[in-house]
Predict the 3D structure of the following.
Amino acid sequence: MTASRPWPVGVEGIVYGGDYNPEQWPREVRLEDVELMREAGVNLVSVAIFAWATLEPREGEYDFAWLDEVMDRLGEAGIKVALATATASPPPWLTRHHPEILPVTEDGTVLGQGGRQSYAVSSPLFREYALRMTRVMAERYGEHPALALWHVDNELGCHVPHDYSDHAAVAFRTWLERRYGTIEALNEAWGTAFWSQRYDTFHEILPPRAAPTYPNPSQQLDFARFSSDELLTHYRALRDVLREVTPQIPTTTNLMLSSATKWMDYFSWADDLDLVANDHYLIAADPRGQIELAMAADLARGVAGGDPWILMEHSTSAVNWQPRNRAKGPGEMLRNSLSHVARGADGIMFFQWRQSKAGAEKFHSAMVPHGGRDTDVWQNTVALGRTLEALAPVHGSRVLSRVAIVVDYPSWWGSELDSHPTQSLRYNEELLRWYTAFWDLGIGVDMVPVDADLSGYELILAPTLYTVRDEDAERLAAAARDGAQVVITFFSGIVDENDHVRLGGYPGAFRDLLEVRTEEFYALQEDEVRHLDDGSPADLWSEKTHLEGAEAVRTWADGPLRGWPAVTRAVTGEGAAWYVATRPSAEALESLVEEIAAAAGVEPSVPGLHRDVEAVRRFAEDGTTYLFVLNHSDRDQVVQVSGQELLSGTDAGGAFTVHAGAAAVIRES
Ligand code: GAL
């Protein structure tokens, strides 16, 4: 169970720190920063992310004096640096001299200078400048003793996941030529016999820019693939420079794995990241936002292939970019942080170290708030540092799950395309609904890609796996035959990779496994609710499904499909395949998951807890287990444990109380 991915050089135990933007502050504040970082137990900071314009104020003229000093002081204080390539936002001189590097939206709007990330990732000229800056950084600081990790760009694709510029058009054509070889193959794949869309040469192809009506869906799907690949290609190019100059220093970039980030296929990025780093922000309006947080953390672990990863950014309290920004309540920041640790994060970092005085993020919380040291936020910052020190032994241990949820970005893109049976289907909402059912039952899950090794799982859920390759569908079928309970939900297996319908009845790729055949979808209107035969409501989706070997587990009790199956089950080999052909209510989903989990023999990590108490175990190589108990509820929770509680250092035996809002980590004996 030793971690197979490298770790920031010279950082012991759990990583603790945040984005540090010293260029925003005078020298005396920077001096105080280092003192405060030591007080808080910070051991890693991300520096120079948005410093390009400060480091290179005019083309080719550099000012490194301030950064040299910052690096030296941090190094002397024993604080390591995740140094950025400084390329996340091009300086004004660059966009002024070369406005052709600016990104363009679908409707032709050029996104100008003045915010950040104002570059077209496909622009060869922008790439040249970014590569040059990266090399300059690597050559200047590559040997610096404080350097522990490279931080490439920042949240690639955050503001501009899709660029529709002429540069993008050129790069898209090259990408398509590599994928299809000939224009005939592309015409076939895109189904261009439809609506007079046949292309004679690759030169005629454009990104799916604003058009009179629905652009070709296969083209849209390929453009999503291309755009994710294009950002990754940029990452790779910068990383290769860093590897060439400093092969001893690992490289990463901060991903945005959450239920909100749709456009980067991070599973396909995983192999290129030396270590996985994620940014996550709690959704303030969600009273149970800890569930979405947990799902994002499980997803980060999935992308890391189970290895330890770093939470590169979250917030100590409120953010500034949601409609209403809520300050975190007592214990909430600690619980948020420990939920990430419980789910495999061996590093907890924040945006940002010191709250800005000016600029668009001045009302975003930080580790050092505007109010200074005499604040809850600062007390919490210091306390978290102590907590993470106490959790050092957890580093390298792993989370083991018997349930897998398949997450597939192309299915996310494809299932939400226009001109479909319903425009109300949201792939991420479906994921979160199912995830929530497992959470409420206290059952831990892994979030895995469609081509994952499924052999260790007893229960495998594939929600809305809209586009699927034959071999991936076959792997799910094999898992069922080998003994797993496999659950497929509506609008799965519908199309091949090119978004061509699999003929002969839905859900095409899974028809044989599920032993059903759907002849027609019956999408439901907004607010249209139908009932199943157990009395529970279901909405959004229904379909006319014939049983072709499977048994009906639930049938429709009303509406035009009264008496037809809504949930089915087919025994296959040692296991079974379930089809959920509608969207059951939250309660109905939970009881269905309970039924399927019972069939799979899967139980909660700690039985009998209140539903807002999160309990997760990490398993160390030497057999030690660490039980994280995070009480998000407003009442005390008693847990039966035996071992040592690491946050308080006390022996915990028998009935141990985790108070309302509190957290405990027990090294179990
Ligand atoms: C992230 C970004 C940070 C900061 C943060 C605010 O998207 O990487 O630079 O803007 O959001 O929440």
The first strand starts at residue 15 and ends at 20. Residues 613-668 form a domain with the Immunoglobulin-like fold (CATH 2.60.40.1180). The pocket of beta-D-galactopyranose is lined by residues 154-155, 158, 279, 281, 313, 319, 351, 361, 364 (CB under 6 Å). The chain has three domains: 15-160+232-394, 403-600, 613-668.
